[in-house]
């Protein structure tokens, strides 16, 4: 599956497996060996970056080849707040603003906790 996904993604960029090997500096034999061997994570990451996708996609863990937008902020859900009745539906924006303000005030009052939270 891995090699098939690499081939398929490379083809969408008009590249062959040979091109992928050359552009990443990975030997072609190594790339072709991924048919039966698990690649090193750093090598697979190079290929994913070249093909503008994720290692999860190449490994078949997702069918979405797009790279998640790191600028998209996680939307707070009722389940995040331990409220099962609301499930995974997002909380209203007004409530989100209130929660953000409470959290900000709490961390201002307890700066030692902010450091612990930032380390997580």
Structural overview:
54% of the residues lie in helices and 0% in strands. The chain has helices at 2-12, 17-24, 28-33, 41-50, 55-58, 93-109, 111-119. By secondary structure, it is mostly helical. Helix 2 (17-24) packs across helix 4 (41-50).
Briefly summarize what is shown.
This protein is mainly alpha-helical and 120 residues long. The protein is 54% helix and 0% strand.
Task: Note the run of SSEs as H and E.
Answer: HHHHHHH
Number of strands: 0
What Rg is obtained from the alpha carbons, in whole angstroms? 21 Å
Kindly report the average pLDDT value.
Answer: 83
Beta percentage is under 5%
Shape: elongated
Describe the largest sheet: none
Query: Number of helical segments?
Result: 7
Distance between the termini: 34 Å
Low-confidence residue ranges:
none
- The percentage helix is 40-55%
Structural class assignment? mainly alpha
Question: What is the topology?
Answer:
Elements: H1 2-12, H2 17-24, H3 28-33, H4 41-50, H5 55-58, H6 93-109, H7 111-119
Helix pairs in contact: 2-4, 6-7
Please name the defining characteristics of this protein.
single chain; 120 residues; mainly alpha; 7 helices
């Amino acid at each position: 599956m891995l090699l098939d996904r690499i081939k398929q993604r490379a083809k969408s960029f008009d590249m062959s497996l040979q091109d992928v090997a050359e552009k990443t500096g990975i030997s072609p034999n190594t790339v072709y060996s991924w048919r039966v061997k698990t690649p090193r994570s750093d090598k697979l990451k190079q290929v994913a970056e070249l093909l503008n996708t994720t290692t999860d996609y190449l490994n078949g863990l997702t069918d979405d080849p797009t790279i998640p937008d790191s600028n998209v902020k996680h939307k707070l859900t009722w389940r995040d707040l331990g409220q099962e009745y609301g499930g995974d539906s997002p909380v209203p924006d007004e409530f989100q603003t209130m929660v953000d303000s409470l959290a900000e005030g709490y961390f201002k009052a307890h700066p030692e906790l902010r450091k612990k939270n930032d380390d997580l």
